[in-house]
């Protein structure tokens, strides 16, 4: 038995549980939420599994006046009910009939063991009864306690059902395993032999997994492994990625909460690598721009000598005409491992230029062209002063000019 997590038992869950109990349908918490609860983590969202079919659930909920949210899950057997301001995603136990490496056709079952059998990893294949009973057919709890990541049954079979599971293996390894390099040889062999299958998986699905790997633990180990096992080329990573730079950057960046793209860019030698990644994974415009920014500026936009190390970054920001340059500079500082400068830069507020055309008119500069030139000259003086000169100083400067 698992000690009950009182926080789970919301009024909504109590009502759902009562409905199922009345009808004698079994209802258990499934998969990731069980893994989280056993690890002492509060689950982000809770999936439920049941012996009731979608039709039976619909009938039961409708009769009880419960609102159903239609979200295309029904053909996979998922019904979403809304009670007490909370959504409950409940899926009928199922068996995969046909799989093509991307998606499965399913049929429903009342056999919990068979449903657990088609899940990817042992730590994700457990069920938890609402009374606290753990149903664990594949030693998932043992593996979780020993921080072991293993496929349910034969690794190659699980992978061939959905090749994305290769990346899920890496992602959970980065979340649960204690140290790098603790893999079963047979698992690595199955991954190597099936790596090509990733070529058929959509870029969007790959990118979701890859981003989580990049900000998880053991990222350097896992990316090196992607190259060793010949996966990299199928997921948009450059053939000759800069693994030395990746090792260097990924080491000091972990604690700075980098964006996934910031970590990944250290593999790239030039902007073509960013373009190719985008072609394969359909990354967002913001992610692409960040990658291009880092590749372009990581070498020459570095801290200033002497007492004002932040100056080059500040000047760059002040001269920039683009939106969110600020956040790109934060990512650059993380990339460079400049933790102290990052803090200072985050606290620095962009000063506003104290002089306006209006001030110059008052001083008798009349033509628009002259005003433009004068403002530009004053801006340069202001910049040279580290943005410290105030309106008075600048205007007296103008008289000298």
Automatic annotation (TrEMBL):
Encoding gene, per UniProt annotation: Trnt1
Alphabetical UniProt keywords: Magnesium, Metal-binding, Nucleotide-binding, Nucleotidyltransferase, RNA-binding, Transferase, tRNA processing
Gene Ontology CC annotation, any one: mitochondrion
UniProt xrefs under Pfam families: PolyA_pol, PolyA_pol_RNAbd
Domain tRNA nucleotidyltransferase/poly(A) polymerase RNA and SrmB- binding per the UniProt entry, residue ranges: 184-235
Annotated GO biological process: mitochondrial tRNA 3'-end processing; tRNA 3'-terminal CCA addition
Source species: Irena cyanogastra
Cofactor: Mg(2+)
Any GO MF annotation of the entry: metal ion binding
Keyword hit for Metal-binding: yes
Entry similarity comment: Belongs to the tRNA nucleotidyltransferase/poly(A) polymerase family.
Protein name: TRNT1 nucleotidyltransferase
């Amino acid at each position: 038995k698992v000690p009950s997590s009182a926080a789970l038992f919301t009024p909504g869950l109590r009502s759902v549980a009562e409905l199922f109990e009345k009808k004698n349908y079994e209802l258990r918490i499934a998969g990731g939420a069980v893994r989280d609860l056993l690890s002492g983590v509060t689950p982000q969202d809770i999936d439920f599994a049941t012996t009731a079919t979608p039709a039976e659930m619909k009938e039961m909920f409708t009769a009880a006046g419960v609102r159903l949210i239609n979200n295309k899950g029904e053909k996979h057997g998922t019904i979403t009910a809304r009670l007490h301001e909370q959504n409950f995603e409940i899926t009928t136990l199922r068996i995969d009939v046909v799989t093509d490496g991307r998606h499965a056709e399913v049929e429903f079952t009342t056999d919990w063991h068979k449903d657990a059998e088609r899940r990817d990893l042992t730590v994700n294949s457990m069920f938890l009864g609402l009374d606290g009973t753990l149903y664990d057919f594949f030693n998932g709890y043992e593996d979780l306690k020993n921080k072991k990541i293993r496929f349910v049954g034969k690794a190659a079979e699980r992978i061939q059902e959905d090749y994305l599971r290769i990346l899920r293996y890496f992602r959970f390894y980065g979340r649960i395993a204690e140290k790098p390099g603790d893999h079963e040889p047979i698992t690595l062999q199955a991954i190597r032999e099936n790596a090509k299958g990733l070529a058929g998986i959509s870029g969007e699905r790959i990118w979701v997994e890859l981003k989580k790997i990049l900000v998880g633990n053991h990222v350097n180990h896992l990316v090196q492994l992607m190259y060793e096992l010949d996966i990299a080329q199928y997921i948009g990573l450059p053939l000759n990625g800069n693994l030395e730079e990746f090792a260097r950057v990924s080491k000091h960046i972990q604690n700075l909460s980098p964006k996934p793209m910031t970590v990944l860019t250290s593999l790239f030698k030039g902007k073509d690598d960013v373009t190719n990644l985008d072609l394969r994974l359909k990354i967002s415009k913001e992610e692409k721009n960040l990658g291009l920014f880092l590749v372009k500026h990581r070498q020459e936009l570095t801290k200033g000598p002497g007492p004002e190390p932040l100056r080059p970054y500040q000047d760059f920001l002040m001269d920039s005409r683009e939106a969110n340059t600020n956040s790109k500079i934060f990512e650059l500082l993380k990339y460079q491992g400049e933790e102290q400068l990052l803090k200072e830069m985050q606290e620095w507020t962009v000063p506003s230029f104290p002089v306006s055309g209006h001030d110059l008119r008052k001083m008798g500069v009349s033509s628009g062209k002259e005003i433009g030139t004068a403002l530009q000259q004053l801006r340069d003086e202001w910049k040279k002063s580290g943005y410290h000169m105030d309106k008075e100083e600048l205007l007296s400067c103008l008289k000298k000019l």
